[in-house]
Structures are given as C-alpha cells and as structure tokens.
C-alpha cells in the first residue's frame, strides 16, 4: 500500500530490529520489547486552495494496541497553528468514537484525506487582517510558567514534540520523562497557552496543569521598579530534557531527591510539594 520510503518511513530502526528479533525467535526475552516502531505516512493531497499539499501522519503504537489508541499526529504546512491543534483534536475524537479497540491507522489516513480541505479553508479564512495603528492602550503582556503533570511520558514522539514545540515557541523550562512525567514551560503567556493546546490533545492516560504562575509585566516589583522583560523572570535557560538517575525494570523512574535538588537550584523547590504532597529535602 505504501511501497516506497517517500510514502512510508520507519523512524526508529532500533525498535524495529528488536521487534523483528522477538518475532523471529532470535531474541532471548520471553516478553515483547518495551519499545515500539514509529513511522511516518507521507501523502500528497490535492486541495482546492493550495494544489498538491504535503501531509505527514506520525504514528506510534502503544504496547496494548489496538486496545489502546495509537499516538497519531498530523503535520501540514498549509494549516495555521490553531487549525493544526484542531485537526489533532477532531481526528482523536473520530478515532475514539469509531475505532475503539480496532486497528485504525488507515481509517485515520482516510479521515485526513476527507477533511483536510476543510481545515485549510478555515486557516485561510482566519488569516489575520493588517493591523491598524490605534491610540488605544496596549494590552497587558503577561509572563507565565506552567507546571504540567502526566501519569507518564515514555513515547519518543511525544518527547520530541515537547522539545521541538518549546523551542519553536521560545519557551524555557524542562521536561522529565518517565513515571510520573513532568513538564515546565515559561515565557509569554500566549506561547505557553499555545504549547499547552498542542500537548493536551495528544493521547495521554492522564495530563493536567498542576500549577501555574502568571505575572503581568507592567507590575511593580518589591523594590518599586517596573518589571520590564520576559527574560528577567525566567528561572531556566533554554529548554532541556532532564534525567535524574533513571532506575527500575525499564529505567522509567527518576530519583526524586535529585529532582528536588534541581528545582531548589532553580528557585522552584516549593513546586515539589505541589506535585508530590511532601516536602523535599
């Protein structure tokens, strides 16, 4: 069905090799390998507004597939950020309603083919009009810091998305994969909200904003001087994936003592109790 690499690309060759060894019986393990192959389905779709348009579906199977829905994201240069987020949400809703417990990747491809034109049209119609200068007061800019909690973060595609989206949006902070999963992003409020809108529509067992901080930039600080810039409020330099002595059978648990020390060094140790209900030390 997808005979060439221009249509189907396997992105995790190690996971594929491990699975092939297990299926062929050459692996010594009695249980399937924990990693799962991830792949890209690449399509060129003819749209009325933009002609031939490249669309990529990124797919990752959980170990319980098809009982558990796969992680599928859609990338298309013809979509605005808002419509990119909306197509993810609508596709996941369609799959949950119509394909629960069944193989569904081809259904997802067909759904995108049938509905992409609608989302591109919405993107074009929602393109912002030229901004006219106005004498009205400028809207207040706000610095935000979001502390996100997930039951776990294992999937390599999700971890890659978190890193890429944070850098694309100019956010600093960190992500801690494993169980539990923690993500902190900080920067302009609009960028933080855009990051959260993308992350939350992915397939998660549980994800939430556990705590948030919002600081108006034109407020006065304790020394009566006005806070002038986003960067003056950042506690992190850049964005990184942080690992704290991974352990456990799958190496998916982090040393919470090291996490506390990391937060303490960044001046964020109070959030440890918010996450775990205990004081760190």
From TrEMBL:
Signal peptide: none annotated. Residues 6-119 form the RWD domain. The lineage of its organism: Eukaryota, Metazoa, Chordata, Craniata, Vertebrata. InterPro entries: Phi-like, Prp3_C, RWD_dom, RWDD2A-B_C, UBQ-conjugating_enzyme/RWD. It comes from the Eukaryota. It comes from Seriola lalandi dorsalis. This is RWD domain containing 2B. It holds the Pfam family Prp3_C.
